[in-house]
Design brief:
Elements lengths: L23 H10 L4 E5 L5 E6 H14 L6 H4 L7 E2 L4 H10 L4 E6 L2 E7 H18 L16
Parallel strand pairs: 3-4
Antiparallel strand pairs: 1-2, 4-5
Helix pairs in contact: 1-2, 4-5
Length: 153
């Protein structure tokens, strides 16, 4: 049985955020530079108002690269109906969200304020850590499986 694992114990601090009036090409450059699949969009009070993903940016980047079109602002392309995680949500609940959606990352909020993000990688780390703790409490079982070593020439 997994101990109650909470988002707040495994989330990342916020690496970057965007504002709706930011240039979209600058935002794309930051996503690429920081190797992020997306980032939260906040208002000038720090409230979460949306999320800009790689997918949201793909058409913009294509149009800018191949047709020389002007791009626009983050607010024109962000998804304003983004899913979030609360700091008190369970890791299991968020794992189920990741399994049933295409999301790779969720903004983490506390009282509607952005406080970080949680990724699939964070969930795997939490589950691995919990599993290792659980397994270390149990006596090791003798394996009946035969180990096969393959060598190549």
């Amino acid at each position: 049985m997994l101990a109650p694992l909470k988002v707040k114990d495994y989330m990342n601090g916020t690496k970057i955020t965007f504002t709706p009036d930011m240039d979209i090409l600058r935002a794309i450059n930051q996503l690429v530079e920081f190797k992020l699949s997306g980032a939260p969009v906040i208002d000038h009070h720090g409230n979460l108002i949306g999320f800009l993903s790689e997918k949201d940016c793909m058409q913009v980047a294509l149009n800018a690269a191949y047709q020389g079109e002007a791009a626009g602002q983050v607010g024109e392309f962000m998804n304003s109906e983004c899913a979030t995680a609360d700091v008190e949500d369970s890791i299991i609940e968020i794992a189920q969200t990741f399994l049933s959606t295409v999301y790779k990352c969720l903004p983490v909020i506390k009282d509607n304020r952005l406080v970080g993000s949680i990724t699939r990688q964070n969930i795997l780390r939490a589950l691995q850590t919990s599993s290792n703790i659980e397994n270390s409490k149990k006596p090791a079982k003798q394996s009946t499986k035969q180990q096969i070593h393959v060598t190549t020439k």
